[in-house]
Amino acid sequence: MSGPRVNSFFLGNSSGVNFSIILSPRDAETGKLQLANCSGSKRAGDWNLDVTPGVNTSKVTVSLSRTLELCLPNATECCPSPLCMVETLQVLACRGSVMLAQLLIQAEIFANSSFAGNVSENAAIIPNQAFKPLGSCPCNLTAGACDVRCCCDLECTPDFQQLFSGSCFPGVFGGDVNPPYDQLCSSQSMEYTPEWFPFLCVQSSLDNTPFLGYFYHGSISTSKVPSFKIPLQTSPGKPFTGYREGNPIITEEDEYFTVPQQSMAGQCVGNAPVAYLHNFDVKCPTNLESYKEGLPHDVRINSGTADFIQQNVVYRAITDRGKFITESEDLLAAEVLCQNVTFAEHYKFIWKDMNIEQVNVTVFLGSLCDGEILTQRFTVEFLSLNSTHGEELFENPGYQVGKPVKAANLNASDPLGSLNIWQPAGRGLCASATDRPVLFGVDSYSGCILEVDINEDCSFLRGNVTEKLNALIQATHIGKRDNSSYTDLNDWVEIIRLDPFSSNVSTGGLKGFCPDIPANLNIRIIYAKVGAVQGIPQQEILAVQISYSTVLWQFQCGLGCRNTLSFLPITASVQFIEVPAQPAPPVTRYQKIYAEFDCNQNEVCWPQLLYPLTRFYTGEPYSQCLAKGLFLAFLVLLATIMSNPWFSKLWNR
């Protein structure tokens, strides 16, 4: 151990077990530790032993009770040297005189180097970075004390520097603020030195280094932007022309309107912006300690035409707390602290064309007490102004992102089908896993764990895995649009199935070894944007393909190989691929020639060859760039003239 505290665990029933700690000095002649006995106590020297008993596990804590500060003049009970103590400890667990367990601890603890003095409030003089580095020792972060691994820190004594002399901070942070650069004539860092290097190398002192903060004085440039630069939007901006699908909703303060949502990692993000026409329903667990209020409900929302609308908020009380409280601890009634918090928020956006007409919010409040875990629910729903009784009319027949993909089994009497993926729960076993529908435009990856016996027959295992994967796809066709009719075959596309590879490889009687197990189901959905309805893209599914990927299953031997069960993870992935609605027109001859000069399609951009000579370049004043460019052109012209044969004849004359 290298700190003043260390934890360990004693596995088993600790009733009747006596824990003790002893100092174990080594024998001066043999170098071996002295034999330990069960007659010790829970304190030895400056060390204390604390035991926290549990059901089948007890936590054992060894802590140091002395200070670790370096000694000042005429001070006691401190560390006389940076290496404060080197001791060997033994922790024993005994029942009577029988030793049940033994823990050996080698403690090497250094003194604290933190600074506890007064810091001067005098303003530091910052040098001009064009001529002198801002700091000659950037790793010197603590005033009046030695910083570990900072070899340029003048406050470190030679004895203290020996502790980390072999692991100093490298580079600029470690004090090498003027490293030799490749252009120096004395630099040997280049692996290959061209023949012209001695002619063009730089003879300069390291004090005049290009690493001085990369400092330069640039003149104020024009506001024009070259064609190959992409502008970066730094603020949300007011959508005066209306919202389009996926645009973030903006508030009156020109900020995003946020509602807690789930991230790609599955965690809840409190400041996630709400996207126009994107419905969601999320659940976020929290407790009283980490509870935070969301965006105030008096914030006005930009309707999309530079007008602002107020939210219509209705507050209701929760009647059944059991639907939201998922876990609670048994606490005394006198010690429980409760607070009125938000249990659920339901947002309904009434929209028309590209604008928001109305926002209705229903907030459910309840009491949350200390020790309880609350599962908050947040829903956002967009309803058309022409909808009736909360049901959306089929104005846009295409799919919208987040809506379930419509499936059908047209070969059966009941055409209703399903296309699902797993939603594991508990231990993640396939036996307890539920499923959920595939959502349009949402790439998904899920799976579950299948328990396999070591004596499992490979053919039976392949059939069992294939059956579980096929259970997710109870359909033969997928609807092209969200309003596909079961009576019209033209509204559906047939699922293309690529059956798994049937293996006839013999395992030779080996147990726990099966090749070519179809453990991965791949669902690829190809779609295209075929039009737009009121500015909203109409998306249509063109084809669906299902394939399998095989793996090699091998029994994994656990501790002692006493368990005859192993685990096989099986997965299902969904990928949406967007293609053009119509084939792209053939490339003309002019486009092929122009592509050679397109900076976005080639690594070499010829239009940028003279970029430093244009007014878009802001690294130096334009007059200096022009002068250097003319001088370079003069050198090129001079070299061309001198390389001509008639020049050598004229020179010889």
TrEMBL record:
One CC-aspect GO term: MKS complex
InterPro entries, sorted: TCTN1-3, TCTN1-3_dom, TCTN1-3_N
Q: Does the keyword NADP apply?
A: no
> Keyword set for this entry?
Cilium biogenesis/degradation, Glycoprotein, Membrane, Signal, Transmembrane, Transmembrane helix
Q: Which domain of life is it from?
A: Eukaryota
Q: Its GO biological process terms?
A: cilium assembly; protein localization to ciliary transition zone; smoothened signaling pathway
The chain positions of domain Tectonic-1-3 read: 241-384, 398-579
Q: Could you say which protein family the record assigns here? A: Belongs to the tectonic family.
Q: How does it assemble?
A: Part of the tectonic-like complex (also named B9 complex).
Q: What is this protein called?
A: TECT2 protein
Provide the species name.
Answer: Rhodinocichla rosea
Give the gene symbol: Tctn2
